[in-house]
Amino acid sequence: MKNLFSFLPVILTAAILPALCGLFSGCYTLTQGVTLLGYLNRAVPLEKTDDAEFKQLVMDIRSFAIDELGLVMSRNYTTYVELDRNYLAAVVSASRRDSFQRHEWFFPVVGKMPYKGFFNIEDARKERSKLEKKDIDVWIRRVSGFSTLGWFRDPLYSYMRDYSPARLADLLIHELVHSTVFIKGQVKFNEELAEFIGSEGARLYIEKRYGTNSDEYRNMFESEANSRNYISFIQELINELDVIYSSNLLNREEKLAEKERIIKASQERFRIEYENRFTNDDYRGFSELQINNAYLELFRLYYTEDNFFIDLYERCGHDLPALISAAKTIKKKGNPREQLENTVSR
Fold first, then answer.
1. Which residues pair with 106 in a beta bridge?
2. pLDDT averaged over every residue in the chain
3. Is 317 left (phi over 0), alpha (psi -120 to 50) or beta?
4. What sign for the dihedral angle of Cα 248, 249, 252, 258?
5. Is residue 35 within 8 Å of residue 143, measured between CB atoms?
6. Share in percent of the chain as helix, strand, coil (round to 5)
7. Tens of pLDDT along 90-125?
8. pTM for the complete prediction?
9. At what angle do helices 215-245 and 252-277 cross, to 10 degrees?
10. Contact of 140 with 92, CB cutoff 8 Å
């Protein structure tokens, strides 16, 4: 099954920095920091790679993001690392079993974060085991990129050479949004903003570089339509569960029983309705997934359901650089949504 979150960069917390190791108990900081520095030490300048087509594509996407969209210039994605796997890190997310109250980890610099990354997937599985002993839902996902928020020069990785132009553009633009606008303690806003601009920025890139009649644009359009249908289905499931979780008439055990019934019913409905909802096979595996609140919470984190950014984009006249310019004015204190809306409304 297609992993919607595999290409979404996460913010790699300052907890991995070896310089901060003394602030933490255990060896998490040291282990992740040593691995990251090992990757960075192996990085070579992008211009030295032997894949001219990939190099040109990356340079063109970065130029589009910076010069045409107005994202901040950075040194990210100007170096390249060879890896022997098709993902970068395993990221752990967690949530209460009887509600969508997410588990958070606290790190200096970035504050509370709803995920924790590991370069070794076995370490992620150990973290999952620890959390499950506390009767918490846990989900592990493999991610293709992350943002170190300027602490290091984030490199490209060899598996990205297999990405379509649309997927690569989405990944790079998403990451550059984090480098341009990051509000401490507002992880949901940060991710929703980066997800919206990354997706729309990639669409504009493909439209301008390849044209709306190109195979690249048609493939992206079909993929996005299927993705929206899947997200919509998941949000319907989330809303159905939320009614149960917020009920004062059910105790915890009754809520958990209803949760399992609702999830199983939704998976059966998904299987029956699949042909009417989707045009490819990317999501068939949903009916077999061991769905839990940690998985569903990821959709609450990355995908806004209230059309906030879509509405703002329309009010900007579908001018993405204008929306990005407005986002740059957000202050560290205060509600970032309210600030952004006020700026756009002027």
1. 112
2. 89
3. left
4. negative
5. no
6. 60, 10, 30
7. 999 999 999 999 999 887 666 788 889 899 999 999
8. 0.83
9. 160
10. yes
